[in-house]
Amino acid sequence: MRRSLFAAGSLVALAACGGSSTGPNINPHPVNHAISISNTGFTPETTQSKVQDTVTWTSSEGSHAFSFIAALSPDSLAPSGAIAQGQSKFAVFIRAGTYTYLDDSIRADTGVVIVQ
């Protein structure tokens, strides 16, 4: 079964297989992990989180967008769309895995979210 999270504005679309969104909360104290996007890349480049934690990307310099690299991520994930300077997009990962993404505007900068 494929589940997708999407809302206009500030949510990155995520898809995950299996599991139920109505089951018990396996992470009773989720936290937010902040990632800054600038013209020199993502800070931090690698973020470790738990299932149901929030990861927030904020553009600190210029306008950016990022996409998950399908061949390196466990699910087919939608791109973030434009993130203007000072704006943010966030995602809640509902499946463990290693999610690799790249900055669509620069193409050389990559980042990783490791969800356990």
Based on CA atoms alone, the radius of gyration comes out at: 13 Å
Q: What is the CATH architecture term?
A: Sandwich
Number of domains: 1
Spatial strand order of the main sheet: 4-3-6-8
- CATH class equals Mainly Beta
Given the structure, what is the number of helices?
0
The N- and C-terminal alpha carbons lie at a distance of 20 Å
Shape: globular
How is the CATH topology named? Immunoglobulin-like
Largest sheet geometry? 4 strands, mixed
Structural class given helices, strands, pairing? mainly beta
Q: List segments where confidence is low: pLDDT < 50 over at least 5 consecutive residues.
A: 1-22
| CATH level-four homologous superfamily name | Cupredoxins -  blue copper proteins
Number of strands: 10
- What number is the mean pLDDT? 78
Q: In which range does the helix fraction lie?
A: under 10%
**Percent of residues in beta strands:** 35-45%
Order of helices and strands: EEEEEEEEEE
Describe the structure concisely.
By secondary structure, this protein is an all-beta fold. The protein contains no helices and ten strands.
List keywords for this structure.
single chain, 116 residues, mainly beta, Immunoglobulin-like, four-stranded mixed beta sheet, 0% helix, 42% strand
Walk me through what this model shows.
There is one protein chain. The chain has 116 residues and is mainly β. Helices cover 0% and strands 42% of the residues. It has a single domain (30-115), classed as Sandwich (Immunoglobulin-like). The chain contains no helices and 10 strands. A 4-stranded mixed beta sheet has the order 4-3-6-8, with no helix packed on it. It has a 4-stranded mixed beta sheet with strand order 5-10-9-7, with no helix packed on it. It has a two-stranded antiparallel ribbon with strand order 1-2.
